[in-house]
Amino acid sequence: MKYIKLLKNLVFKNSDPLICARIFMIGFILISLSLLTIFLYKDFYQTMIHARQVTLLKQEVSTENIDIEKFNKVLKKHNYKITSIIEDVIFDPFSTQEIKQQNENAQD
């Protein structure tokens, strides 16, 4: 109570009570509107965004069964090719010269 009286004396010492009431009402309305805005943003807007994301993700879900054995095989080859130190020569699928050499070696 002491602080409220002190605040009244400092701010509204020579003011009209009607002006004080208007200032308090404007402050109350501004605080209420800001709290309402925060509430609507958190509870409605963000919920709608999450609901849209869920529907988009449901559309992108694969309906096919994944062959884990093939996936692990491809992943192993991929990890081998992206390592920084590779001991063997990596076959270049776009080079026709190497394919001819491999075919000649296979015939021998």
- Report the major sheet: none
Using only CA atoms, what is the Rg? 36 Å
Q: Approximately how much beta-strand content do the residues carry?
A: under 5%
What's the shape?
elongated
Pairing-aware structural class of the strands and helices? mainly alpha
The N- and C-terminal alpha carbons lie at a distance of: 103 Å
The parts where pLDDT drops under 50 for at least 5 residues are none
Question: What value does the average pLDDT take?
Answer: 77
Kindly state the number of beta strands: 0
Please write the string of helix (H) and strand (E) elements.
HHHH
Keywords:
4 helices, elongated, mainly alpha, 108 residues, 74% helix
Structure description:
There is one protein chain. This protein is mainly α. The chain contains four helices and no strands. It starts with a helix and ends with a helix. The mean pLDDT is 77.
Condensed summary:
By secondary structure, the protein is mainly α. The chain is built from four helices and no strands.
Element layout with pairings:
Layout: H1 2-11, H2 17-60, H3 68-81, H4 96-107
